[in-house]
Write a structure and sequence with these properties.
Helix content: 40-55%
Structural class: alpha/beta
Radius of gyration: 12 Å
Number of strands: 3
Number of domains: 1
Length: 80
């Protein structure tokens, strides 16, 4: 089961989701028509940033929370 399937199941139960992923997956994620996606410039497998880089990780998480509160329609994709 992919992250997209899980997000859809949660959304079906009124639980909002944000997918945080590396920009290298942009094409695939847009094709999945997910509710909210935050694309980051970090390498695959580390979408929040480098290990122990608390500042970058915090910034990414805060941007995801902003996306959750500001997205007005499904299919919102933003880049960090």
């Amino acid at each position: 089961m992919s992250v997209g399937h899980i997000a859809r199941l949660l959304e079906d139960h009124q639980i909002p989701t944000i997918i945080v992923a590396s920009k290298v997956f942009e094409k695939q994620l847009k094709a999945m028509h997910l509710p909210r996606v935050l694309l980051t410039p970090y390498m695959a497998g580390r979408p929040l940033g480098k290990p122990f880089d608390k500042t970058a990780q915090k910034n990414t998480v805060l941007k995801g929370i902003d996306l959750l509160s500001e997205a007005k329609e499904n299919g919102t994709v933003i880049t960090l």
